[in-house]
Amino acid sequence: MQSAYDVIIRPVVSERSYDLMEQGKYTFEVAKKAPKEEIAEAVEKLFNVHVVKVNTINVRGKAKRVRYQVGMTRSWKKAIVTLAPGEQIEIFATQQQADAE
């Protein structure tokens, strides 16, 4: 079992993730080998909320080119965490209010 900080790497900030927050769903980049149960426990421990459901997606790296050099961006794992109704993660809630103003 890893620590919660090893499981949750960073929140994913995008237009789609902000739209999902209105439905009580939060998006995180997580450790590649972390199972759904560990992700749920880590979010509950870090943010003091109740997790109802966890969906995971393995995001493949994209082919990128700089002049003649062809390479790949890194691949990573994304988790969309659904919280219990009426709960929210405060860090994101304050950013949403600031963006609305």
TrEMBL record:
GO terms for molecular function: rRNA binding; structural constituent of ribosome. Keywords: Ribonucleoprotein, Ribosomal protein, RNA-binding, rRNA-binding. PROSITE patterns: RIBOSOMAL_L23 (PS00050). GO terms for cellular component: ribonucleoprotein complex; ribosome. GO terms for biological process: translation. InterPro entries: Nucleotide-bd_a/b_plait_sf, Ribosomal_uL23-like, Ribosomal_uL23/eL15/eS24_sf, Ribosomal_uL23_CS. SUPFAM superfamilies: Ribosomal proteins S24e, L23 and L15e. It holds the Pfam family Ribosomal_L23. One of the early assembly proteins it binds 23S rRNA. One of the proteins that surrounds the polypeptide exit tunnel on the outside of the ribosome. Forms the main docking site for trigger factor binding to the ribosome. Part of the 50S ribosomal subunit. Contacts protein L29, and trigger factor when it is bound to the ribosome. Belongs to the universal ribosomal protein uL23 family. PANTHER family: 60S RIBOSOMAL PROTEIN L23A. This is Large ribosomal subunit protein uL23. It comes from Tractidigestivibacter scatoligenes. The gene is rplW.
